Amino acid sequence: xxxxxxxxxxxxxxxxxxxxxxxxxxxxxxxxxxxxxxxxxxxxxxxxxxxxxxxxxxxxxxxxxxxxxxxxxxxxxxxxxxxxxxxxxxxxxxxxxxxxxxxxxxxxxxxxxxxxxxxxxxxxxxxxxxxxxxxxxxxxxxxxxxxxxxxxxxxxxxxxxxxxxxxxxxxxxxxxxxxxxxxxxxxxxxxxxxxxxxxxxxxxxxxxxxxxxxxxxxxxxxxxxxxxxxxxxxxxxxxxxxxxxxxxxxxxxxxxxxxxxxxxxxxxxxxxxxxxxxxxxxxxxxxx
DNA sequence: AGTATCCTGGAA
DNA sequence: TTCCAGGATACT
Length: 288
What we know:
The protein folds into two domains: 4-137, MutM-like, N-terminal (N-terminal domain of MutM-like DNA repair proteins, Alpha-Beta Barrel); 159-282, Helicase, Ruva Protein, domain 3 (Orthogonal Bundle). The model has no long low-confidence stretch (mean pLDDT 93). Helices cover 21% and strands 22% of the residues. The relative contact order is 0.16. By secondary structure, it is an alpha+beta fold. Helix 2 (159-167) crosses helix 5 (211-230) and helix 4 crosses helix 5. Strand 3 and strand 4 (55-60) form a beta hairpin. The structure holds a DNA duplex.
């Protein structure tokens, strides 16, 4: 379940490892995972590495690009000459490399390989022609991005934007945080943690937040996302980095995945409920 | 606005 | 054996 910090970690490592690498062949073992014509990208080099919310945009030097959405269980792992000392692969790479869940393999020059593993086959890699590319192809529509990285590709979410978005909906505030059309990049882990840090009940109607609460939540979102990036993402579930190692944020989450454990602030038991069909963790005492 | 759907392994 | 996990979308 890569979210903004995880996808940013991947983007940054892809840039390090793939820059200048040439695609010699593309082996598609599951057609559901690769959309477009593989022949359009064979022979081209990786030159651009961007991220829009949770979506990766990899530009090639031949007027084509790759758009990648990892969804829940997608993993991109590189092995090759740009890894000086290949670290041991995480156990989160279920099935091995290549293995049972390897859906696409990019064979690169100088004996390099980029593997796309995806246990649940929700993720996809799409080939687009730059001249015909429309941003809507990324995802239906993406909203503002919280300023957690120096130069986001999407318009930056300001406190004012955030306040406008919240005041326009009476839906539960957590659902608004995770609505990619409004705010891009936040998923279940960071939504839970940001709401805990701000002391706000995830079920509160978005338009019921007072100014100081909006302000708190805005700052909390930026803080947890930056924290996630600093820790190299959260490997709570299936996330691994491009070098095959795990992130560390899962050891620093406040409430996500901690049902029954003690609230880090007051010690009370962390509760779990369903909200919009998703597991929602919070402390009844600390979040009002 | 709320719910089913895609998919598969792992937990209950 | 059933249920749950979850991002985004297609439904009702």
